[in-house]
Amino acid sequence: MWVYQKGLPFTGVLMDSGYATKTVMRHREQMQKTYYCPLKTNRRVDDSAGTTPYQRVDSLTWTQAQRKQGKPIKIRGFPKDHKVK
pTM of the predicted model, to two decimals? Predict the structure, then answer.
């Protein structure tokens, strides 16, 4: 992979929503890198810890604090205990 070939030092990654896939996101986590990427509005997520069905990311409700700091969500298709913020 080019990251290892170039030897570029970095701690964070900014990605487009097109790269917000399970494979890419999990790879960044395995590299212990912080990453930021928007999710497409139709992406199914759960912020209820499994008490309600998955819903579109654009239908989530956010408190003022969550708008600033984010909130943990589970993305459909990710492992059961895996959450992103």
Answer: 0.78
Say what the pLDDT of residue 32 is: 87
In this model, does residue 8 exceed pLDDT 80?
A: no
The three state secondary structure string of the chain is CHHHHHCCCCCEEECCHHHCCHHHHHHHHHCCCEEECCCCCCCEEECCCCCCCCEEHHHCCCCHHHHHHCCCEEECCCCCCCCEC
| Residues 22 and 46 both lie in one domain | no
- Say if residue 34 is in the same domain as residue 45: no
d(CA 60, CA 45): 9
